[in-house]
Write a structure and sequence with these properties.
Blueprint: E1 7-10, H1 16-27, E2 31-36, H2 39-51, E3 56-60, H3 66-80, E4 85-88, H4 103-131, E5 134-139, H5 152-171, E6 177-184, H6 190-198, H7 203-209, H8 218-229, E7 240-243
Parallel strand pairs: 1-2, 1-4, 2-3, 4-5, 5-6, 6-7
Length: 253
């Protein structure tokens, strides 16, 4: 029970990696704020957690709006009186030729993946700083470390999120707050299935390119997220932890 009695917000936790992290945190003893843009999706996961004997509440909102980030933090504080962990997982992908990428698509991606994470981190820090303790885990991507054609907005947002991690990690360390980036490679999620429909890759392409020869699972990412939020990672801040099956290390074809 490495997260016993700690209060965690996991944005974008109604499916995929975020939902897996919410469950992993709850099993380690955390009280979880489940989040989605759609209230019914957040409610579904929160109810399932409660039925499993865990403490959870649901909060809906669009993280691109500062008020939504503040509602998440306020909900945690009103229910449990504190906030110990924030996972900035809410995100979107965007695939298409850079020369025809619409302004709307650019802004949606940057505002969701980067601006939203900053708004949530700001709101969380206002609670964590007086506590002299807290952890913020930013879910970036291997595409925050490398580039890939037709992902201009996505790569820019994830590179920016890693930069934000470094700044906040060093700035808030004196307040006892750790900020880390968790960078997964290709993970089997609904987002990946959607991307394959609009992108230029197949499952076989990913399996061939990944040194471990397979996609990662949401459970594997969630286990790393548990470690990073726990006291086992007490000397890690401002860093990137890559969970990618060897993708970034491999420079071959």
């Amino acid at each position: 029970m490495r997260l016993r009695d700690r209060v965690a917000i996991v944005t974008g936790s109604s499916m995929g990696i975020g939902e897996a992290i919410a469950w992993a945190y709850a099993r380690e003893g955390a009280r979880v704020v489940v989040h989605s843009r759609a209230a019914e999706r957040a409610d579904r996961v929160a109810r399932a957690l409660a039925e499993g004997g865990h403490e959870a509440i649901a909060v809906a909102g669009d993280v691109r709006e500062r008020a939504a980030a503040e509602r998440l933090v306020d909900a945690a504080r009103e229910r449990w009186g504190r906030l110990d962990i924030l996972v900035n997982n809410a995100g979107t992908s965007m695939i298409g030729p850079s020369e025809t990428l619409a302004e709307e698509g650019w802004r949606l991606t940057i505002d969701t993946n980067l601006t939203g994470a900053f708004f949530c981190a700001q709101a969380a820090a206002r609670v964590m700083i007086p506590q002299r303790r807290g952890v913020i885990v930013n879910i970036s991507s291997i595409l925050g470390e490398v580039g890939l054609p037709r992902r201009a907005a996505y790569c820019a947002s994830k590179h920016g999120l890693i930069g934000l991690t470094k700044v906040l990690g060093t700035e808030w360390a004196r307040h006892g707050i750790r900020v880390v980036s968790l960078d997964p490679a290709y993970i089997k999620t609904p987002m990946d299935e959607r991307d394959q429909g609009t992108g230029d890759y197949t499952s076989a392409d990913i399996e061939r390119r990944t040194p471990l020869g397979r996609f990662g699972t949401v459970e594997e990412v969630a286990r790393v997220a548990v470690f990073l939020a726990s006291d086992d990672a007490s000397y890690i801040t401002g860093s990137c932890v890559t969970a990618d099956g060897g993708w970034v290390a491999y420079g071959g074809w």
